[in-house]
């Protein structure tokens, strides 16, 4: 789905598809160099990271393993609920593995901080992060993100995996919704 298909709901496009793919390609080249001969485990955080995982993993020039985890930190609204719980766990034993977490967006950093600790607790040899987007203004915890796609301002964004009430995940770019889309929501 493209911006033109849902024009009446979009305020403006923030990052076009081509720029997203170009940046993912650059990060993938860097990661391919850094993890040469290490066979990393990519851990995608459901559901938002699915689109990033597909584009990123295909852009890598090294073999990787992939697994997914579902964590709850946000409901259907736009604000953090603070507590993190595992909705669906990995099926892979991370002990001794070089893990690269793949995330759609780092907001407060709480989800990521929790996940990094958890994977280390399970015995991962290393834990690094690739986040497509980052909202620096919203950071609450100092968590290291080695690979970053783009910085975005403190606005709610959708597309390329990111949703508003489960919608817009299949938009091929990153965009800001019109305020009217949120009307009636008390997030
Ligand atoms: P924290 O605050 O733990 O949150 O870093 C990360 C998770 O929050 C969600 N999130 C967003 N989802 N548009 C979205 O669709 C946004 O602008 C946004 N900001 C945060 C997202 O699930 C991310 O993994
Ligand atoms: Mg997420």
TrEMBL record:
Its EC number is 2.4.2.8. The keyword Metal-binding applies. It is found in: Cytoplasm. Pathway: Purine metabolism; GMP biosynthesis via salvage pathway; GMP from guanine: step 1/1; Purine metabolism; IMP biosynthesis via salvage pathway; IMP from hypoxanthine: step 1/1. SUPFAM superfamilies: PRTase-like. Residues 17-164 form the Phosphoribosyltransferase domain. The keyword Transferase applies. Its cofactor is Mg(2+). GO terms for biological process: GMP salvage; guanine salvage; hypoxanthine metabolic process; IMP salvage; purine ribonucleoside salvage. GO terms for cellular component: cytosol. It catalyses: GMP + diphosphate = guanine + 5-phospho-alpha-D-ribose 1-diphosphate; IMP + diphosphate = hypoxanthine + 5-phospho-alpha-D-ribose 1-diphosphate. Keywords: Cytoplasm, Glycosyltransferase, Magnesium, Metal-binding, Nucleotide-binding, Purine salvage, Transferase. Pfam families: Pribosyltran. Belongs to the purine/pyrimidine phosphoribosyltransferase family. PANTHER family: HYPOXANTHINE PHOSPHORIBOSYLTRANSFERASE, HYPOXANTHINE-GUANINE PHOSPHORIBOSYLTRANSFERASE. This is Hypoxanthine phosphoribosyltransferase.
């Amino acid at each position: 789905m493209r911006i033109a298909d849902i024009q009446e709901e979009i305020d403006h496009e923030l990052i076009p598809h081509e720029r997203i793919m170009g940046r993912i390609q650059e990060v993938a080249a860097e990661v391919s160099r850094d993890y040469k001969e290490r066979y990393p485990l990519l851990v995608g955080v459901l559901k938002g990271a699915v689109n990033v995982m597909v584009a990123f993993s295909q852009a890598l020039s090294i073999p990787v393993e992939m697994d997914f985890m579902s964590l709850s930190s946000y409901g259907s609204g736009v604000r953090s609920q603070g507590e993190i719980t595992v909705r669906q766990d990995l099926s892979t034993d991370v002990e001794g593995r070089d893990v690269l977490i793949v995330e759609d967006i780092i907001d407060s950093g709480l989800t990521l901080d929790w996940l990094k600790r958890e994977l280390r607790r399970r015995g991962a040899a290393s834990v690094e992060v690739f986040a497509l987007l980052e909202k620096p203004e919203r950071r609450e915890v100092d968590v290291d993100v080695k690979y970053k796609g783009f910085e975005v301002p403190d606005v709610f964004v959708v597309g390329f995996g990111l949703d508003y009430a489960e919608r817009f995940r299949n938009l091929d770019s990153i965009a800001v919704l019109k305020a009217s889309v949120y009307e009636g929501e008390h997030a």
